[in-house]
């Protein structure tokens, strides 16, 4: 089946490598708050202000540590490659599982976000929003891989 | 939708893997299809019928519940 908009199968290995590196890097930043100084650069800023501040700046530059940007980049690019690389044989049944998993992940992701909107406040909600940037991909990958694994496991070899 | 792919495969004495290769899908697809968990596209159904040397409706038949939305 010729499925458009998917990456080649070979991208999945690269994706897993970047994805795991992104997760480990993110976890280390979150737990130790360590940001390597060699990642400090002057970066272009399209728009920026202090959190909950009022002075917004446009089209300027600032010194910034790129650790969190790098972690997010690894996580998102890796996650996208893992989620949307073709299977070895990408057929219509797998395409259906892919579509169902995407719908399922979207419902779960936004269901949890709705719950958080109603019951989580202040900085905790900020963290929910932060995690929510990545959870759709995570839910999709987990669901898609689990269903594929289940389908493979369910097969009884019949001659 | 009912199908007799398993029977046709047995007549031809080919495995799920062999049929999957002939029609260009994975073995999971043939397995899901034989167990009624997946309704194939028209193209795949026609390919399976071709490989089995049968007409489409000799292998795939509508279920009464297919008429209920």
Q: Can you walk me through this structure?
A:
- The complex is a heterodimer of chains A (159) and B (69).
- With 159 residues, chain A is mainly α.
- Chain A is built from four helices and two strands.
- The radius of gyration of chain A is 19 Å and the shape is globular.
- In chain A, 16% of the residues are buried.
- By secondary structure, chain B is mostly helical.
- Chain B has a two-stranded antiparallel sheet with strand order 1-2.
- Chain B is globular and about 35 Å long.
- The mean pLDDT of chain B is 94.
- The interface between A and B is medium-sized, with 17 and 16 residues.
**Strand elements of chain B, count:** 2
Largest sheet of chain B: 2 strands, antiparallel
How does the overall form of chain B come out from the CA principal axes? globular
Radius of gyration of chain A: 19 Å
Shape of chain A: globular
Order of secondary-structure elements of chain A: HEEHHH
Instruction: Tell me the number of strands of chain A.
Output: 2
Please render the helix and strand layout as text.
The complex is a heterodimer of chains A (159) and B (69).
Chain A: H1 11-32, E1 40-48, E2 57-65, H2 67-83, H3 92-119, H4 122-154
Antiparallel strand pairs in A: 1-2
Helix pairs in contact in A: 1-2, 2-4, 3-4
Chain B: E1 2-3, H1 5-12, H2 16-23, H3 27-34, H4 42-52, H5 56-59, E2 60-61
Antiparallel strand pairs in B: 1-2
Helix pairs in contact in B: 2-3
């Amino acid at each position: 089946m010729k499925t458009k908009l998917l990456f080649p199968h070979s991208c999945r290995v690269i994706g897993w490598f970047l994805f795991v590196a992104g997760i480990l890097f993110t976890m280390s930043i979150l737990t130790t708050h360590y940001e390597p100084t060699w990642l400090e650069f002057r970066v272009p800023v399209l728009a920026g202000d202090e959190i909950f501040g009022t002075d917004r700046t446009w089209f300027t530059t600032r010194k910034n540590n790129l650790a969190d940007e790098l972690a997010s980049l690894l996580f998102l690019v890796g996650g996208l490659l893992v989620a949307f690389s073709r299977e070895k044989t990408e057929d219509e049944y797998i395409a259906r599982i892919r579509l169902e998993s995407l719908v399922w992940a979207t419902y779960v992701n936004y269901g949890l976000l709705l719950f958080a909107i109603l019951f989580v406040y202040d900085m905790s909600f900020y963290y929910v929003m932060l995690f929510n940037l990545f959870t759709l991909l995570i839910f999709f990958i987990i669901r898609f891989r689990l269903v594929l694994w289940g389908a493979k496991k369910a097969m009884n070899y019949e001659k | 939708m009912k199908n007799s792919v398993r029977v046709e495969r047995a007549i031809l004495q080919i495995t799920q893997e062999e049929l999957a290769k002939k029609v260009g899908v994975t073995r999971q697809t043939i397995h899901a299809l034989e167990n009624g968990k997946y309704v194939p596209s028209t193209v795949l159904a026609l390919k399976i019928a071709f490989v089995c040397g049968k007409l489409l409706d000799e292998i795939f038949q509508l279920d009464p519940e297919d008429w209920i939305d």
